[in-house]
């Protein structure tokens, strides 16, 4: 895999002259953060050797290089999910590529269903832990080049970054929740009992992404920070039908607040 990564990286480096400091992965309906980036180079996934292409509505397929919060960044407008049929090594391939491009921090966003009874639609939740119910992306042959065979996950979401983000949110009067994200395969949304089960095992939200990318980033020693937008509720008495279109709509509405936090957080790095 290393050879393949190096090939992808050298293609990208032939188009971009600098080393990005921060990587950003944008979730469903959250691609608008790109409007705040002073863009230098944008490369379609389909033009990048060995890169997958995203097949999901609401996910563009571009790698964007530019400046945000005064730092050079690389942003993925569109990510890959296990439910698209990709092996987990492919889902997480771009994270490895970003590491070899030189990123020192990874920021992620996603849309999720809230299972905490106090959560409301449109809330932002800072992720401070996860429960992985998707196959682990590190299963398979181990290459010590990438890090440990058995990576520590006690600080999967950097406490330092979480504290900084909370301070930023408070300063701007942005309400944030904090909690545990359960990563599931999808592509179905949950039955009422499945939502209840995710609450019982310790989840506050549930979604179909982020966890694989964080696992791979942590194996390689990259500090991670992630925000989830609550787009629907899996709380007894509040469960209504969910559609992908509604998820995108709610996410887009909450996006400005998320972008503000991300941008200011980057400026402190
Ligand atoms: N479940 C799983 N994934 C999701 C949800 C949900 O309710 N909402 C947005 N992504």
Question: How are the SSEs ordered, and which strands pair?
Answer:
Layout (H helix, E strand, L loop, with lengths): L1 H12 L8 E5 L11 E7 L17 E7 L2 E7 L10 H4 L1 H9 L3 E10 L9 E9 L26 H13 L4 E8 L8 H9 L4 E3 L3 H9 L4 E10 L10 H24 L2
Parallel strand pairs: 1-4, 1-5, 5-9, 6-7, 7-8
Antiparallel strand pairs: 2-3, 3-4, 5-8, 6-9
Helix pairs in contact: 1-3, 4-7
The structure holds hypoxanthine (HPA).
Total number of beta strands: 9
State the domain count: 1
Major sheet, described briefly? 5 strands, mixed, barrel
Distance between the termini: 30 Å
The SSE order reads HEEEEHHEEHEHEHEH
Overall geometric form: globular
Radius of gyration: 17 Å
What fold name stands as the CATH topology?
A: Rossmann fold
Going by CATH, the homologous superfamily would be: Nucleoside phosphorylase domain
CATH classification, class level: Alpha Beta
Mean pLDDT: 94
